[in-house]
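If you are new to this repository, start here. Below is one unmodified record pulled from the training split, so you can see the exact layout before writing a loader.
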Amino acid sequence: MLLVIDFKLLPWRHFFVRLRASKINQGRVMFFIIWQGWGVLSILIPLLCMVPFAGLFNGLGLGVGLLVGAAANAYIGHKLNNQPGKTYIDKNTGGEVIFRKKHTLFYVPMQYVSVLWAVVGVFALFSAH
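And here is the target side for that same chain:
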C-alpha cells in the first residue's frame, strides 16, 4: 500500500485551493478541499472534539463528539466572520468599501458548516446501539 500526499497551493483569485492527492493500491483517489481564511478549522474542530468522547458506551461518542464539535465550530466561526473590516474610500466613485476576512469551507461560512455537523451528530446518536 503506497500513500503519497502532495500539497499544492493554487491561488485562484483570493481563494486558496489545497489539493491532496492520494494514491492507494494502484488506484488514484483525489480530494479537493477548498477553504478561505481559517475555514479548514470546520473540519479539524469537530474531529478533535470527537477524541475525548471516543470511550463512551453504546457508540454514543461519535454523536456527542460531533454535536460538541458543531457547537464549538459555530462559536468560533461566528467570532471569526463577524470581526469588523477595514474601510477604504474608492478614488473613482468616492464611496466606502469595506474589506473583511472571510473564513469559509467550500464557499460556506464556518458557522453554517456546523449545521451539517450537528445533523450528522444527531443521526449518529439515533443510530447508536
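Two things worth knowing about this chain: Helices lie at 41-50, 60-81, 110-127. The chain is about 40% helix and 30% strand.
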